[in-house]
Design a protein that fits this description.
Length: about 150
């Protein structure tokens, strides 16, 4: 798969995930008695379906293209985690989101999210600066989105 195709695929995943988050939040703000509830519920279900399709395509792609995937070396994951921490310290939420996406196994060609990355992300959630920003949500969304390829 070419770099261009990987970028397009990653972009589709991000769009599907953003659509899912948006529709989930809209539904959460809607009461069941409201007229918009049913429509927003359907929108959320469609977004969940697109996200499932993206995950299925990702799994198929990994099986087809990355049969020999490897676990990352410490040198490979450490700079990405350091960049995430730097962006958290700066309070740059967009860069935090990008740094979280950069830890995705699909972008890196990993079979699963390595334990080191999971442990480091859990450690970042303890940072006091995280509580006051949306960056906390980006890291939590990572776990929600990447739950299937987490290592055991």
């Amino acid at each position: 798969m070419s770099v261009l195709n990987v970028c397009a695929f990653a972009s589709n995943v991000r769009l599907a995930f953003a659509e899912y988050l948006s529709s989930r939040d809209e539904l959460a703000l809607t009461q069941k008695k409201d007229k918009e509830f049913t429509g927003r519920r359907r929108t959320l279900e469609r977004a969940q379906g697109r996200l499932r399709q993206c995950r299925a395509r990702e799994a198929h792609h990994r099986d087809e293209e990355h049969t020999g995937n490897r676990s990352p070396s410490e040198e490979e994951a450490a700079p990405k985690i350091a960049r995430l921490r730097d962006n958290i310290e700066l309070g740059d939420e967009d860069s935090v989101q990008q740094a979280v996406f950069d830890l995705s196994p699909i972008v890196n060609g990993w079979k699963a999210v390595p334990d080191e990355v999971v442990e480091q992300l859990l450690t970042t959630l303890r940072n006091e600066k995280m509580y006051a920003s949306h960056a906390y949500g980006h890291v939590l969304n990572y776990f929600e989105f990447e739950s299937p390829p987490l290592t055991a």
